């Protein structure tokens, strides 16, 4: 692996413990003004000090994030659908690699939709993006299993993650499931876990803990942080579970203490 690619990956996944807390705020690319992100800058800025990296779209980066922030960026570069469509899988590449480089990103992110009507198109898009990324030393993060109706079980998630890795993705993002260690074991690149829909803070901390315990390289979490009653306290709690190996109960106690205090 060349220096640039490796250096960017180390900026995303901390080489000290091989873990990351990626803050995901890219939801608007198909969900519009998602709850908690109506005014992105107000929500995102206070969280930046606690995230290892930030996953977002070009438009939000350009308009809402001051260039003085030095946080490593993971740029969402796929899109083309909205929540008004039943089928979210009809995505294409929506940002050129040259523009991603101009924006000084550490990685680009694209979704693949395994088992969907547009499976082939999204895998080929991933492959094309990886070819471009390899040319310039930009890692590609493949997002798997986004969508409404699907069994997010170990068999399906292992299939998605392995296809992403075989295609050449440097990091794979997926969902936590029972027997998650099998997903990680059969995926030769780091796997990070999405938070999914908002659940209680305790449940989200349990998810982060279990994911890391079973081999995830961290989380790429959005709604369970920015929709929390106290997003700053929540990201700190998630961080301590991922990086400091504290239990979800201890992290929750800290969260409550910060919230009350
Ligand atoms: C949507 C995404 C989101 O970044 C991802 O789902 C993570 O956010 P959340 O923790 O809210 O699920 O990739 O396609």
Overview of this structure, please?
By secondary structure, this protein is α/β, with parallel strands linked by helices. The protein has a single domain, classed as TIM Barrel, CATH 3.20.20. Helix content is 43%, strand content 15%. It has 12 helices and 10 strands. The chain has helices at 3-12, 28-31, 40-44, 58-64, 97-102, 119-136, 154-167, 180-185, 201-213, 223-226, 231-243, 248-260; strands at residues 20-24, 53-56, 73-76, 78-79, 92-93, 107-112, 140-144, 171-174, 191-194, 218-221. The protein has an 8-stranded parallel beta barrel with strand order 1-2-3-6-7-8-9-10, surrounded by 6 helices. Strands 4-5 form a two-stranded antiparallel sheet. Strand 7, helix 7 (154-167) and strand 8 (171-174) form a beta-alpha-beta unit. The chain is globular and about 50 Å long. The model has no long low-confidence stretch (mean pLDDT 95). Bound molecules: ribulose-5-phosphate. Residues 24, 26-27, 55, 111, 143, 146, 194-196, 220-224 line the site of ribulose-5-phosphate.
Provide a concise account of the structure shown.
The protein has 261 residues and is an alpha/beta fold. The chain has helices at 3-12, 28-31, 40-44, 58-64, 97-102, 119-136, 154-167, 180-185, 201-213, 223-226, 231-243, 248-260; strands at 20-24, 53-56, 73-76, 78-79, 92-93, 107-112, 140-144, 171-174, 191-194, 218-221.
């Amino acid at each position: 692996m060349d220096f640039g690619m490796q250096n960017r990956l180390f900026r995303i996944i901390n080489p000290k413990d091989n873990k990351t807390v990626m803050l995901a705020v890219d939801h608007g690319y198909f969900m519009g003004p998602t709850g908690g992100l109506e005014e992105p800058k107000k929500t995102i800025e206070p969280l930046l000090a606690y995230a290892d990296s930030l996953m977002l779209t070009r438009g939000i980066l350009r308009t809402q994030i001051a260039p003085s922030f030095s946080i490593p960026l993971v740029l969402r570069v796929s899109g083309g659908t909205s929540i008004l469509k039943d089928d979210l899988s009809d995505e294409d590449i929506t940002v050129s690699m040259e523009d991603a480089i101009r924006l000084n990103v550490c990685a680009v992110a694209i979704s693949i939709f395994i088992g969907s009507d547009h499976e082939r198109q999204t895998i080929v898009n991933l492959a094309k993006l990886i070819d471009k990324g390899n040319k310039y030393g930009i890692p590609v993060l493949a997002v798997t299993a986004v969508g409404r109706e699907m069994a997010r079980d170990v068999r399906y998630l292992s299939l998605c993650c392995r296809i992403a890795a075989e295609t050449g993705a440097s990091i794979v993002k997926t969902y936590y499931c029972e027997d998650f260690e099998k997903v990680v074991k059969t995926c030769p690149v780091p796997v990070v876990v999405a938070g999914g829909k908002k659940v209680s803070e305790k449940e989200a901390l349990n998810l982060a803990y279990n994911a890391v315990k079973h081999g995830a390289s961290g989380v790429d979490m959005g709604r369970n942080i920015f929709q929390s009653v106290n997003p700053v306290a929540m990201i700190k709690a998630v961080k301590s579970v991922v990086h400091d190996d504290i239990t979800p109960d201890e992290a929750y106690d800290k969260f409550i203490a910060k919230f009350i205090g």
